[in-house]
Amino acid sequence: MAIHYIKDPVHHLIKINDDDKKIMDTLLFQRLRNIFHLGTAYFTYPGATHSRFEHSLGVMSLGSSVLYNVINNANEKKLDFWKKLEDNEELKKTLRYACLLHDIGHAPFSHVCEEFYDKERDLLVKDLKNQLEFIIDSNENTEQMWRSKPLHELMSCSIILSHYSDKLDELEVNPKDVCAIILGRVCKDVPREKRSHYGVLANILNSPIDVDKFDYLLRDNYMTGASLASLDKERLLTSYTVSHKNNLVLSEKGLSLVTNLIVGRNQVYMWVYQHHKVVFTDTLLRKMIRTLIDEGLIKTEDFFSKSAVTEELIDDYNMISEIRTNAKKSKKILDLYSMWRGHEFLKPCWKHAFEFNKKFEGEPKNDLVKDARYKPDKLEKWLAKHLKIEACRVMVSCAKFEPFIAAGKDIPINVNGSIKYAIGDFGLSIEDIGKYSNVPYVYVDANQIDNCLDGLKNYSSSFISD
Which domains does the chain have, with CATH numbers? Predict the structure, then answer.
């Protein structure tokens, strides 16, 4: 089988083969070239024009490398359970194509527009429950699992089952196993003696130390030029191993890297994904799309549905083209699109969580966090009225992420045969970042910032009605 190489700025050379190309050279996968990985972050970080395409290749490459190291490290420990699977191509290809296809269902602009998939959730859950009813996890409520999964993961699985089953069957890979791994689960029909192995595959793609996070931390950090996450990739790769109970863990030699992993992730979220201008442009895009829908200029299902992805191959460029075309039909769209195209952005009343926490205490702070998240439109209307300005000259949003410790997640480390946890047992969390993880943002024209702050310092949720 011929081997090909793709030059990648993060992983240098990514090795692919003819079987990989059977997946990659499809219209649905090529669509990922036109889905920005960081949504609208390129307005703030001009280098952040990377796509879901190269991210998917990176995850595939990392996943194969991690599995290789897991098998080698298990053999060094004389874990015969893994030795007999060293040449198991089915295992390797199942993980490889789960990694490659895990983002195939992303909406235009990735996570920024995922909320517009909401109408699809019931259809996706119904479709997947019928086909993947044998996904097992004895510690979780099945219905809760389906409702809690990110919509792009559900969409990816649905697309794999309907559009890639034949290709995966041809490659001797079970498409249902691929979907289960994407969802972090194992299928009941996997032979009992292999379930632990498939559980490790699921952890490689879906866990606190998964290769999805590994790639986006490296890639987003590099492509934005932020230089916030310092990770020794090669050493971390060789640290992946399994415990005697066949759970994916890091070996003790990875202990020195874990602080960088935890803090690097938190810093990238705070200073890249939550950057005040990134939050603004993300919000501006969603507001333009929501206005198109509310004014009946487009139908949600024409851009944010399985058929829109699989039949029309809707991507970021289709979305912007639709906004530009309809700007001629709606004054509100025209105002918002002029702001977008001319880079004439509103200014933040505070630029980050530290500044927000310094300006606000007590009830105003709590109410602002709550209302910016759950009632942003009503808070905008109240502010416009309070400031006596046009509604389009104020914008409210709320940025949120879950630090490892706040998300109840931890990194397992094998220390002399005993599993310890980076945060819980070693306290490897440099700072208590939880109090900075929910940041409301209010944007107005520069000459209105002082008036806006004066009004917000005595703000109460009672000011806006339900």
Answer: 3-268 (1.10.3210.10), 346-401+437-466 (no CATH)
